[in-house]
């Protein structure tokens, strides 16, 4: 039986869009998940809902997002530290994108 590949990239992309837009609430909520207590699980679900809702209102479309959200929720319930990892990866991706965009802006000014 072949194992299904875990792809959380769509969730990270949505979260990184929020970070690029300086909307840190959902990332902060995910970073605070400590254990399997229902309080933290509820916070993680609310964070993902808020992130997807924000992205949807911005007209965003991410292929395979529904499956990735389901996978993320299952992983967070099994291993709560995954929530922090999602937030960290999204923030890092957003910062990388900003640096890349700033570098391209500098190239245009010089050219």
Account of the protein in words:
This protein is mainly alpha-helical and 111 residues long. The protein has one domain (9-110). It contains 5 helices and no strands. The radius of gyration is 15 Å and the shape is globular. The mean pLDDT is 90.
- Which ranges are low-confidence, i.e. pLDDT below 50, for 5 or more consecutive residues? none
- Tell me the overall shape: globular
The biggest sheet amounts to: none
Give average pLDDT, whole number: 90
CA-to-CA gap between the ends? 55 Å
Topology of this protein?
Elements: H1 9-20, H2 25-31, H3 38-57, H4 65-78, H5 81-110
Helix pairs in contact: 1-3, 1-5, 2-3, 2-5, 3-4
Task: Summarize the model shown.
The chain has five helices and no strands.
Please supply descriptive tags for the structure shown above:
single chain, mainly alpha, 5 helices, 0% strand, 111 residues
């Amino acid at each position: 039986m072949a194992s299904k590949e875990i792809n959380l990239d769509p969730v990270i992309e949505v979260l990184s869009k929020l970070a690029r837009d300086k909307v840190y609430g959902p990332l902060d909520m995910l970073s605070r998940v400590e254990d399997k207590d229902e309080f933290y699980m509820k916070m993680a679900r609310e964070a993902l809902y808020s992130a997807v809702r924000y992205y949807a209102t911005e007209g965003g479309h991410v292929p395979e997002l529904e499956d990735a959200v389901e996978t993320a929720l299952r992983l967070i319930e099994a291993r709560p530290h995954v929530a922090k990892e999602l937030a960290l990866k999204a923030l890092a991706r957003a910062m990388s994108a900003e640096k890349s965009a700033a570098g391209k802006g500098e190239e245009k000014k010089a050219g």
